Amino acid sequence: MTSESSKKHPTPTRRISESTIHRLSVYYRQLAILESEGYHTVSSKELAKREKLTPAQVRKDLSFFGSFGTRGLGYPTTELKQKIANILGIDKLWHVALVGAGNIGSALASYKEFAKQGFELNSIFDNDQRKIGSNHKGITISDIGTLPEALKKHHIEIVVIAVPASNAQKIADICVATGIKAILNFAPINLKVPSDVVLRTVNMSMEMEYLSFYLCNRHNIDVPGKG
Amino acid sequence: MTSESSKKHPTPTRRISESTIHRLSVYYRQLAILESEGYHTVSSKELAKREKLTPAQVRKDLSFFGSFGTRGLGYPTTELKQKIANILGIDKLWHVALVGAGNIGSALASYKEFAKQGFELNSIFDNDQRKIGSNHKGITISDIGTLPEALKKHHIEIVVIAVPASNAQKIADICVATGIKAILNFAPINLKVPSDVVLRTVNMSMEMEYLSFYLCNRHNIDVPGKG
DNA sequence: TTTTAGTTGTGAATGAATTCACAGGAAAAA
DNA sequence: TTTTTCCTGTGAATTCATTCACAACTAAAA
Ligand SMILES: NC(=O)c1ccc[n+]([C@@H]2O[C@H](COP(=O)([O-])OP(=O)(O)OC[C@H]3O[C@@H](n4cnc5c(N)ncnc54)[C@H](O)[C@@H]3O)[C@@H](O)[C@H]2O)c1
Ligand SMILES: NC(=O)c1ccc[n+]([C@@H]2O[C@H](COP(=O)([O-])OP(=O)(O)OC[C@H]3O[C@@H](n4cnc5c(N)ncnc54)[C@H](O)[C@@H]3O)[C@@H](O)[C@H]2O)c1
């Protein structure tokens, strides 16, 4: 009997693995495809087949969040898609800010998929005087000095960091101090943030190194995740 | 007794987890930092502390590939860094081609880190007549029609796909048919490749969705990977 | 109505990854 | 030389994730 179980909260603290969360994203995309193909229901078997997973995995993942299916029939496509959107929180609008309007930052600012998923990028920051004040896809690039006040003013919940590695920690610290709880980092560095802030780092060099490792070792090592 | 064990190959087939490979990349970066800070040796304890891992994890990861340390002393910084570079295959030059010279493709073509790690991007392909023949960072953009012959001519081992999702499978198929064994994909789609081809997909929307999930569920769910 | 086929949801079993715990060895201090 | 301190390498134990297997239920056919 933990202190947690004495609370009347409807959903007690459970542990959901990172893999399960990523698979929810995968199911969401596949459900959109199934929906467009006209399927009203889909079985765990079919969903699993399309994503090279096991039906049990699909059912177990979903069961962590509730009972969405009908025995003998499967899951209602549109409803399940909506349920997953709700679980992932992509049925609402998120306010996103981008720091660093360089090569990768500019690409991200032009990325349409984000907006489609409800991630509204409406603030861009840089410290380069030549960029500050200029317009990028309809968004004016602001001075990095205004970051704290702007994060609050625009109710930013998620910050994307796309500055050189040497400046990334400094930006992260400002975000944390301003109350940001979610950061997506593209700088190849291990940022330090408090445990109540979620940080995801996309490190493309590490992905390349994984490929390189596989090419070198595929004959003597059984590498997972291939295929 | 498998057919493998009858070969005289020094390293029989073992299973190395994806996490272990990623951590090798992480150790490599941290060793470079330790080296620059003047450390000649480093203990699993120190390495673990800097990456928020356990010392046992560090030792176990390294032990899959050999015994690199000295009891009572630790690991020799420079030597271990070199050993890991060799395991990951980043002590050699890899020939990389990029398909899709759009927003993200252009950013990747300008990315200096790749070259530093031995990933030489020397071919770019597109199907847009306005882009073909133009120069990007000293590399002429080639017609996508010439992809198969160019991959062979330039001994390309790794292909980076940065085209719209609708065209990505087509490009992957051409690469596979030409004998490519490693693909880094940026299109948000589940590409199908044979089991002897290693595919890594960087899906930024999924990373955003992970952040969104965390923001919605951090009070009732114990989400891993935060901190 | 009864039977048959199909599918979920979930405890139990299995498998994989991580951590523990300590023998074995190296260096430094006594 | 002997003792103490420190740290690796690794089997065993543990924790975590996946898969199995089946009761419970639905819909459709007989
Ligand atoms: N280019 C790529 O394809 C790529 C790929 C993966 C990762 N990255 C990483 O993303 C980051 C950015 O890379 P890039 O190629 O876009 O570099 P870049 O130099 O083109 O862009 C960096 C931008 O950040 C701005 N900046 C620097 N310090 C700042 C600060 N303190 N506050 C606000 N803005 C600041 C600069 O003015 C510049 O506009 C780097 O950490 C890089 O390693 C880039
Ligand atoms: N822009 C981003 O920040 C970003 C982020 C994550 C993922 N992505 C993904 O990366 C891919 C590219 O995105 P983008 O924003 O750079 O798009 P883009 O439209 O700017 O670039 C796509 C490029 O691919 C070329 N192309 C299209 N079909 C081709 C073919 N069959 N052969 C060769 N070249 C072809 C186009 O001419 C264009 O130059 C998309 O799948 C997108 O979802 C983009």
Question: What distinguishing features does this structure have?
Answer:
homodimer, 227 residues, alpha/beta, Arc Repressor Mutant, subunit A, Rossmann fold, 2 domains, seven-stranded mixed beta sheet, two-stranded antiparallel sheet, 11 strands, globular, disordered N terminus, binds nicotinamide-adenine-dinucleotide, DNA-binding
- Low-pLDDT stretches of chain A: 1-11
CATH topology of the largest domain in chain A: Rossmann fold
CATH architectural group of the largest domain in chain A: 3-Layer(aba) Sandwich
For the record, the count of structural domains of chain A works out to: 2
In short:
Chain A has 227 residues and is α/β, with parallel strands linked by helices. In chain A, 42% of the residues lie in helices and 18% in strands. At the A-B interface, strand 1, helix 1, helix 5, strand 9 and strand 10 of A face strand 1, helix 1, helix 5, strand 9 and strand 10 of B.
